[in-house]
Amino acid sequence: MTLRHLLMHTSGFGYGPGAITPGVPLVARSDQEKLYKDITVKQESGEIDTLEKLCVELSRLPLLHQPGSDYTYGMSFDVLGHVMELVLGEPLHQIIRSRVLAPVGMRDACFLVPQSKIPTLAGYFRLMRDEASGERWLERLDGAHGRDSMYVKGSKAAYGSKGVPAAGGLWGAGRSTMLFSLRDVLLFCQMLLNGGRAVSGHRVLKESTVQSLLTNWLRLKRACKQPSPPGWGSEDVGWSPLGNIERYGPHAGALYMGGCTVEARRHELLLAGPAKEDGGGHHDGDLLAGQPLGLEGKPG
User: What predicted TM-score, i.e. pTM, was given to this entire model?
Assistant: First the structure.
């Protein structure tokens, strides 16, 4: 298994069952989720509270496939996070802060919002729908009010010490989610537009690393037999995990999660942050390119 396998979710690691809100019983709906359910339960209870413990538990399970032979979205980034901890000798959250957040200038980024910043916290909503009447409404999932949010330090719903600052993804219901202000996100995206150099002039990523995000790796090697592997325009996933930048479908041009698009001719950034509930309609990428929402940047 290589670091590239972990980065591309071709390592053979999977995920256990998840829940939208904390405290909901975990139900395994597939063989993969059954295999990983015990690990997920230990994550939810706080028994697994470090990436090291997670990796020990993962080492006791068989891989879902030979590394590099297939794509499975799973705990690859969490394992990669522990590799970083071992190489650099620091906890992952400190590595993220010293090597990414501070150089880029992302001063608001945190795993739990302090009480003083509750008014700035955006709610986490789900679109609900009554099948009989067709009525639709929004339900806030992180807490009835900002002060009750699971993302607020000291609230009853906060995951607190049970959460681990993981490298990527969620541990169960809202665990390990890093929160950002719009300013933080724009600074990070501007760094990408500048070829890996922050607005402060500090180089965060090599230009070759940024260029790799703009490379369609599936043109070099296919991990799945079908033309559109899981993750490419998928209703369930919606990003391009193997190629990083998707060339086809409703999310064409997106570096990640269909929300960050670089339009090569104009060097403008398009940014949108909704979680898709109903994928019935998609905007054409060329139309979006004419409606820039972010910063103008010079090519790196």
Answer: 0.68
